[in-house]
Write a structure and sequence with these properties.
2 domains, alpha+beta, 347 residues, eight-stranded mixed sheet, three-stranded antiparallel sheet, 1 helix
Amino acid sequence: MMTSKPYSQISVQPRGAAGFTLVELMIALVLGLLVVAGVGSVFLANQTAYRSNVALGEVQEGARTSFEFLAREIRAAGANPCGTSNVASVLNPGGNAMLYDNAPIQGWDDATTVAALPPSAPGLPVAGGGDAIRLASAKGSGLDLEAVTGPRANVKLNSSTTAISAEDILMLCDIDKATIFQVTNYNSSNRTVVHGTGQVKTGPGNQTKCLDHPVPMQPGSGVDCSSFSPTSYLAIPVNYIWYIGTNSDGGRSLFRFGWGGGASSEPMEMVRGVWNMTARYHEQGGNAYVTATNVGNWDNVDAVRLMLTVQSGGTQPGNAAGAGTDNQPLQRTFTSTVAIRNRLNIN
């Protein structure tokens, strides 16, 4: 037979306290904040390193590309496919005569003093942006003559081409001589390049139709015009002034202005972010690199030392501040020395 205890005799066990104490909660919060702070610090450090790497990459790429452009033109200054140094020009003087000069190299200590450069932006030379250098050479076109030239105003090519048009400026050369002239007309059907003395819309025009040495010399003057044999080559002279100008965003870039086959050229932005250019020149027999003002004879210059200051963009991806000191753009200066190949003293 079961018996029940009176209610007052049932024992009740007390329950223990559950949950976090205030001290435990505060410790957990502190630990959580430390973890968040550590993760944030790593994130910020990675972001800063990323911005620095991007900026440094921009600067290095700008310097590498700039030196590649300039070094290629400096090495080739005065060179032509025929290897002759006896170069004449039948182009009319006047206008931007500097751009039609066949002298291979010329420099200025301040680009704003170069009269041939355009007077309006973009591409306007920057005051304090450094020096300017003009480099001229001739590049092969892969075209040669079919017939001997004489006292006539045309040249007949061995093959037709679409690379030539009226008002282009070209060079005809052989192992003994070379002459720069302007094309007044080109007939692709009979492969004839005309170089008369008529007026042209763009460019200087020719002072004589004789591709002669010295210039000018007209038929009937008692002296025959020079002849170029079918072994002669047609080349494309290039003549560019390189300088630091203002780009469309108000920053600075490496620009070039001049002509390379065509009779005229607009300023062309070549490398963005080039902030300053300094050029020093070495003359044969000299023991120092000097400024353009102190060059005694440009025909004796055999090497150029370039110093380029290149700057990264003002902001990095995500509109982050610059990677340089005080959140400014990163800036570095690079130096390279380039020899003019056909003026090297090999003795």
